[in-house]
User: Fold these one by one.
Assistant:
Number 1:
Amino acid sequence: MNKGQDPLVLFMPAGKRGRFPVGTPVLDAARELGVYVESVCGGRGICGRCQITVAEGSFAKHGITSSVENLSEFSSTEARFKSKRGLPDDRRLSCSATIQGDLVVDIPADAAVNRQTIRKADDGREIPRNPALHCCYVTVEQPDMHKPLGDLDRLAKALEAEWGWTDLKFDPHLPATVQQTLRKRNWEVTAIIHQDEETARPTLIGLYPGLLNEAFGIACDIGSTTIALHLVSILSGLTIASAGAPNPQIRYGEDLMSRVSYVMMNPEGREGMTRAVREALNNLITEVCDQAGVNRTHIFDLVFVGNPIMHHLFLGIDPTELGGAPFALAVSGAVHAPASSLDLDVNDDARVYVLPCIAGHVGADAAAATLSEGPHRQDDIMLLVDVGTNAEIVLGNKDRVVAASSPTGPAFEGAEISCGQRAAPGAIERVRIDPVTLEPKFRIIGTDKWSDELGFEEEATKFGITGVCGSGIIEVVAEMFLAGIISQDGVIDGSLAAKSDRIVADGRTYSYVLWRGDQQLVVTQNDIRAIQLAKAALYAGVRLLMDRLGINSVDKIRLAGAFGSFIDPKYAMVLGLVPDCELENIKSVGNAAGAGAKMALLNRTYRREIEETVRKIEKIETALEKSFQEHFVNAMAFPNKVEPFPKLATFVDLPKVKVSAGIDQDNGRRRRRRVR
Ligand code: FES
C-alpha cells in the first residue's frame, strides 16, 4: 500500500478492483464495485452468506501484496457465527471484516451454509450470479398509535431503508398474512423479492418469520424423450440435486409429429399431454426435494426450456400450428408466468421463466444451448448442433448468427435400425473393426471392458448384448467405411464375403454380422442407408447455414444433447455428420440446454442476453432453400461426395474412393420431419 493512498482491493474471480478507505467493510467494497456477494441478513452476521477468503502473497501483476493481516481482527460477530454455524478457518464474513490494507479477495463459489447433499450434477462451470430472486432479512418497526402506517407499509419502509428497495409491489395474498407473520418472530422477517427485469418494479412475493436462509430454483429441460430437472440453490449457485425421467408423452407418440397428430385428432389430447408433462415435472420436483431434504415451498423461481412443441404443451398451448408450414409459434418471446398457473407444486408465489424460441422448429432448448455455448460471443465461427430426431443447428460468431433445423429422423437414436436400441446397459456403444481380418470388437454400456478382453463375457452376462445404441451405430458404420467394408457411397461390398464370414448375403444386398450370440446383431444395407439419410439431412442443414454466412469451414463444433454427449467426434467427422474441423476443436457438451436454463436461473442478465440474441438470429427454413437438395445428395457419401475433409485426413487413414454400382442411392428420396 503506497503511503497516502487508500488500500487497493481486488475481487476474484470477478477481477474487479478499487481503492477504499481503511475501515470499509469488505462487503460494501464489493457492492460498490458491482461484485456479487450474497447477503440475506443485511450484514448482521447471522446468515453467513457473505463469506470470503483472502489470498496470501505478492501479486506482482496487480501490484498487490495481500495478507489476511490486512483485514480487521476476527470480530465477536464472526466468532458467534463460527461457534453457532461453523466457519472454515480461512473464511471471513465480509459484512464484518473491514479493509486495513491491500487485499486480493476470493469469493468462494460454495458458501453453502445449509448442509444439503451436493450432487455432482454440474459441469463445474461457475455461473456469475445476478438472480431475479432476493432474500432480504429486515426488522420492522412495531406499530405505533401515533403513526398509523400499516404493517405492510412499515415493512416496505424497512426494506427501502435497509435494502434500498423502492416502489415495491406486493403479491395480493400478502395483506391477509402479513400481520401474523410479522408478530411470529418479534418483527423480524425475511422478505422474498422477485425482480426479473432490472428496470421493472420489484415484487414482494413471500414473507417468512425470522431468517429464511435458503431459496431454491429449478432449471429444467423438457426434452421430447427425457425431462432433466435440477434443484439449484439460488443463494449459493450450487446444484443441490438432479433427476431425470422419460417424457410421459411418449405414450402419445414416440416422435413429436405423432404427438401433434394426436392433438389434432383428439380434442382432449392437448389437455392430456399438458397434464402428463406437468405431473411428470411435479414428480421430479418431489424427487429432487426428497434427495436434498428441501421443502418444496422454498422453491421460488423456475426456468424451463424445451423444443417448440414441448414448450407449447407445457404452457397449455395447442401445438397444431407447429405441425405444418409456416410453423407458427403462439409465442416466440420469453414467457413469464406464476408457477401456480402451470399447476406446479412449489411455493404458491413462485415465478416461471421460459426462454424464447428461435423459430417454429428451433426451440427454447436451442436458445438455451446457444446461451450456454455462446456462438454469439465468439470471434471464431462456432457450429452448435443438438442432434435428436430433428437436429437444431446454430452457426455464427459475435457478428452474425444463423439457425435452422434439419429432419434427421430417429436413426441416430437407434430407431429404424434393425439392431438399434436406446442407450441402456447391454447396448453396444463403441466398435472397432480390424481392416485386415474385418473382425469387430466392441464395448457395451455397463462395462469398461472390450469384447476381446478377459472377463468381458462374464460382465456381459449381467445385461446381455441387446442391441446397438446411437453412438455405437455411428461407430460401426464409420469403422465399416474405414475398413473398406462399405464404399464411399454406402454400399456393403459383397465381394468381401469370400474373405470374411462376417459379410453375409441378405436378399439382393449384403449385411455385416457384428455379434453372434443368442441374438445375432447385424448391420444391414438398409441400416447404412438410414444413417446416410439422417447424416445427409444434418450436413445439408449445416451446409446451408455455411452458405448463408458465405463460409467453407468452421472453427469450432459443439455437439449437444444426449446423443452429442456420447458420440465420438472423430467418427462424426468420418461419416461427414459435421464439417471438417480440427479434432481438438470439436467438443461434446452434454445437456447444453439444461446448462443454459441454469444460467438463466442464476443470472437475469443472461435472460436479457438470450432474448436479444434470439431476436437477432437469422432463421433459415431448410425446406425452402433450393440448394438443400444438392447438399443432401452430396452428403449421402462418406464423408461427402464433393467437400474435402483435409483436417480429417491428417488423423484418419481414409480409404481410397471405392464407388459401387447397382444400388439406387435414393437421390432425393427422403423424409421430412419438421420437428423432433
Ligand atoms: Fe449475513 Fe454477512 S451478510 S452474515
Note: Residues 112-121, 662-676 have pLDDT under 50 and may be disordered.
Number 2:
Amino acid sequence: MNGLQAHVKIGGGYDILIASGLISKAGQLLKNMYAGRTCAVITDTNVEKLYLSSLLSSLESAGIRAHAYAFQAGESSKNMDTLSDILEFMAKIPLTRTDFAIALGGGVTGDMTGFASGCYMRGIDFVQIPTTYLAAVDSSVGGKTAVNLKSGKNLAGLFYQPKMVLIDTDTLRTLSKEDYASGIAEAVKMGVITDKKLFSLFESGEAFHNEKEVIFLSVFAKAEIVDQDEREGSVRKLLNLGHTYGHAIEKLSDYTIPHGHAVAIGLAMAVRTACRMGDMEKETAEKIINVLKKYGLPTESPFAAEAMADASMNDKKRAGASLSIIVPKEIGKCEIRKIPAEEFIAYIRMGSEEI
Ligand code: GLY
C-alpha cells in the first residue's frame, strides 16, 4: 500500500491506514479479521451514491456478507430516532455478537455508527471509513460517539473505539469547498496544539497538495493524546482548543455555520484572547489567523459577546461553576486553564477585538 499508517493503543489497539483507493480495497484489508462474518454498512443518502457500491463489492469479494442502511444526510438526522432505526436494522439482518458494522461517511455517520455498535448486543466491532476531511483528521479517531438530544448537541454517547480506520484520500475530491475547509480548521487546530511541522504545512501552502501528510500528522498527534487520556480527564481537553467559543457560535447559528468553520472562528478568538492576555506573541497570533484566512476560513464571530456567553453557559450559570479554557501559547504549546464560568465573557470580548 502506497500510504501512511498510524496506530492507537487503547481499545484493544487499532491501525489507521491513509491512502488513495482504500474503499475498493476494504474487503482485502478486513478479510483477516472478518471473512465469513456479516456486516452492517451505515451511511447517508449523499455518500451512498458515491461510494457504497464500491465498498459493497469489495466486501463481498472478500467473503464478508454486507447489508447497507442509508439515513437522510445531515446533522438533523443525528438523533435518537435514527439511532433506533440503525439498531433495528442491525437486529433485522440479524447481526450477531461476532459480526460488525462499518461507518461510511462523515462525522454524523461515524458518531452514530459508533454509538449503535457500542450498545448493540452490549457491543460489537466497528470500522470507520471517513469520507470527509474533518472525519479523516479528527472524528474517526479516538472513539467519541454520540447523538444529539433535544436538550443539546452530543448529549448521549459512549467512548467506544473502532477496530480499524481506513482513510481513502480520494474521497476528499468530492467535498464542497466548505466541507474541505472544515477539515483544514481541525487540522490547523491540531498543529497549534501539538505540532510545529503540521502547522508549517499550512503556512507554506504544502497542505494543498500533501493531504496524506496532513491527515497522518493530525491522527498521529491525536493518537498520542487519546492513548494517554481516552476519557478527557486531562490532556484530551487540549483538543477542545477554540471549541468553547465554536460551540456557542454553532448553537447561535442554529447549526447553519458548520462545525469546522465555527472552530476556525473559535481558534482565532482563543488566539486573540491569548495575545491580549500576554500568553502569546502578537506575531504568532497573526500567523495563525492568516493561515485560517488563507484556507478560506472565517475568523470573526457574527454574534455579540453577551449572546455567546449565554449560549456557552447552559447549566454552568450557577455560581461557582468553572470552565476549562484551552489557552494557546506558542505553535505546538497550549495549556488548560480553569476559569470561573462568569469570566468567560471577558475572554469572548478580548477574542472579538483587533490585536
Ligand atoms: N474532537 C475532539 C476529541 O476527539 O477529543
Note: The chain has two domains: 4-174, 177-352.
